[in-house]
Specification:
single chain, mainly alpha, Fumarase C, Chain B, domain 1, Fumarase C, Chain A, domain 2, Ribonucleotide Reductase Protein R1, domain 1, 18 helices, 4% strand, binds arginine
Length: 464
């Protein structure tokens, strides 16, 4: 058991099983960078206040910067005997500086640290997720444009409905993911970092000292939440008690996951022998250990399956937070694993699906076979008749009967004589059947739609 940040009032050693049970170091080491930020800012505020002299502050800052460099160089290994990341950093500084390190935690609470760290984590990962979404938006756009002359049967109830252009199809996913991007952007814009809550009641360190310390820190070329409005606490009780930012972040990820799962399902379906529209890039599929012919869409299936975990993580934090008395409660430590889990899963999925979209190929022959299905144009026939003045329900019934007749007789509408056609409606003839029952007409006849342009140019790419 490593040194703890508490213990003075205790006569007995903490129970070993309980100590193991309550530790968070095995996951909260992931916010190590932000925890070091908190310490650097705190040291600077202590110096401003006169609680540390210049030399002490410089030594502490330099020890913290050394640990930060270890993290950045990938050399940092958390000591899993520590209670949490805050304790681990404290113990490292103690190892480097001895007694002086005892001043690092002066007038500070882990309650303030942990919320600071988690907010910064959400901000930085949110930026990265936005940049991954940008790549997907660009790849969807590119895919749509590559096959801009292709049409596709559109579905409702997984039954053939009406013809759409392929670029409109990819555009649907583009629009969904663009809204996810915008949701994340709004989250990033309002994210702020706060410091100085103390345990819950505020701190005797003046807010000016914290503001000055934060200003100095942010000017020292460290990554900054660009949209942060406020750097001091609005309300310390709220600050240490609230995790709605985690819930909001997980909600954004859950909606994004729901969209990705729908894309995955369409791609799985359209790449089956039964549909045969899409050819998935091999690099994202796996084979069968027994059936040599198989090319299985395992990535897409795992993505679809992950939806349970992503929703579960959101529900887990929502439920943990329900009914908690103000302010900080240890229950809240349990927000980290769901937060990290959803973030990491989404980042993997987004990275991989971007490549899959890039490598997706269309099987134009199979698509053409499907487009030959005359039923796909039944609605266009109705609309054509309506524009000639036939009442809608009359046109609907007439075309319904025509479709049923052709189905029962196993004949093509395209091969019926004008005389036969006119039995269903006097305006029908082979000439207009040929004009109407084709994908170009079906798509071009839709006048209610905006131009098919999905632009990614206005988005500023962001890196982690
Ligand atoms: N590991 C804790 C968490 O993640 C840090 C805060 C601990 N605070 C306390 N009063 N025990 O929430």
């Amino acid at each position: 058991m490593a040194d703890k940040l508490w213990g003075g009032r205790f006569k007995k050693e903490v129970n070993k099983d309980f100590f193991e049970f309550q530790k968070s170091i095995h996951y909260d080491y992931k916010v190590v960078e932000y925890d070091i930020y908190h310490s650097i800012i705190h040291v600077s505020a202590l110096e401003e206040t006169g609680l540390l002299n210049k030399d002490e502050a410089a030594k502490l800052t330099s020890a913290l910067s050394d640990i930060f460099s270890e993290v950045r160089e990938g050399k940092f290994k958390p000591n899993l005997d520590s209670e949490d990341i805050h304790t681990d950093i404290q113990n490292r500084v103690t190892k480097k500086l001895g007694a002086l390190a005892q001043k690092l935690h002066t007038l500070r609470s882990r309650n303030d640290q942990v919320v600071f760290d988690a907010k910064w984590y959400c901000y930085r990962e949110g930026l990265y997720i936005s940049s991954l979404l940008n790549v997907i938006l660009a790849n969807l756009n590119h895919l749509g444009n590559t096959y801009r002359d292709v049409f596709l049967p559109g579905y409702t109830h997984t039954q053939r409905a009406q013809v759409v252009s392929f670029i409109r199809y990819t555009g649907a996913f583009f629009c969904m993911l663009e809204r996810d991007f915008e949701r994340m952007d709004a989250f990033l814009k309002k994210s702020s970092i706060y410091i100085g809550s103390g345990a819950l009641a505020g701190s005797t360190i003046p807010k000016e000292a914290y503001s000055e310390a934060l200003k100095k820190f942010l000017e020292s070329s460290r990554p900054e939440p660009k949209h942060s409005k406020s750097y001091t606490v609005k309300n310390p009780l709220d600050n240490v008690a609230s995790r709605d930012f985690v819930i909001e972040f997980l909600s954004i990820l859950s909606i994004l996951q729901m969209h990705l799962s729908r894309m995955a399902e369409d791609f799985i379906l359209y790449s089956t022998k039964e549909f045969g529209f899409f050819d998935l890039p091999e690099e994202y599929c796996t084979g069968s250990s027994l059936m040599p012919h198989k090319k299985n869409p395992d990535f897409l299936e795992l993505l679809r399956g992950n939806t349970g975990k992503i929703y579960g993580n959101l529900i887990s934090v929502l439920t943990t937070m329900k009914g908690l008395p103000l302010t900080y409660n240890r229950d809240m430590q349990l927000d980290k694993e769901p937060l990290f889990s959803s973030t990491e899963v989404l980042e993997q999925e987004l990275k991989i699906i971007a490549g899959l979209i890039k490598g997706l190929k269309l099987n134009k022959n199979r698509i053409q076979q499907a487009l030959d299905d005359e039923e796909l144009y039944a609605t266009e026939l109705v609309e054509f008749l309506v524009h000639l003045g036939v009442p809608f329900s009359q046109a609907h019934t007439a075309v319904g009967k025509l479709i049923r007749f052709a189905e029962d007789k196993k004949i093509k509408i395209r091969e019926m004589s004008d005389k036969e056609l006119r039995k269903f409606d006097q305006h029908l003839s082979q000439l207009n059947i040929k004009k109407i029952m084709n994908p170009e007409y079906a798509v071009a006849s839709k006048k209610s739609l905006p131009a098919q342009k999905y632009s990614t140019s206005k988005r500023s790419p962001r890196s982690k």
